[in-house]
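Note to self: user wants both folds in one dump. Writing first protein now.
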Amino acid sequence: MAAKYKEYTVKELKKALQNLKSKMGDLSEIKYVSRTLRDRLRNNSNDANDLNDSESFNHNKYLERSFLGYVKNIINRKDAVLPSFNMTDCLSYFSKSLAKINPNKLFVIPSWIPKLSDPAVQFNLDPPTYQQITNVIRKMKSSGSPCPLDQLSIISFKHCPYLRTYLTELIHDIWLSGTVPTEWKRACTILIHKKGNNNDPSNFTP
């Protein structure tokens, strides 16, 4: 049995365990595969911690490959480190570094690309109804963090129809006015510490 599952990856072990359970396979084999999978996942977790402590670990590549995996395996496994530099240094550094990625800032569509045709079906431009807003709110995850700017959790909107009513009226007024409030255009960027000295902006990623 050990030789059979020796070269299996974590994904293959999960699939094998699922097949064994669905087909009412041998109990001893189910226990063996389950224990092997558990040990393999534990080892992967320890490897992630070791990599995180290593100076050679490339945080940027991990972020590009899997943002959610980075949050789960790296950020949630250690205490957050806050930056010690001021807002001016932070703005100056990230303005320059982000400008290098796209120095023109605006992408000019080449003239040889054909223009999009007018829509064949008329859009419904009416403001969303209370029920439509409620459906969107119910689909949102309760575990999501509240906005750092207003600290309003989605849970309160899920359980309080009065709040949803006020929100619907607010959206209706803004929709019909045709102007987005200035407060809605604001965003909050949180810096995530990667490694090294917390006084260096390059050791953080927004």
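First done. Writing the second protein, which came from a different request thread.
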Amino acid sequence: MTGWDAAGGPRATAGEPVEEGCGPNCEQALGRLFAYVDRELTADDAAQVRAHVEDCRPCLDEMAVETMLKELVKRCCQEQAPADLRLKIHARLTEVRITRTV
């Protein structure tokens, strides 16, 4: 499925060509992009993705979007829930556990 980038142009989701002319190498690189950004690839696989995006502007742009998205989520999820909310959730989870074990 193709999405839209900040400039209003088409942006592919992982595993899809970014633009016409992208071929199997782009599909392979984009298919492993999330794992690359999360540093979950082997050294060899990471080197292959890195080599591809260094030579492919559309894939490099897609990697930049995924990296920015990851950083945004990280920044937005740093706040802790208020103590009273955490206590209510903990109490509810305890209640559910007790109910299911009885």
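Dump finished. Worth passing along: The helical segments are 24-31, 33-37, 43-55, 57-76, 83-101.
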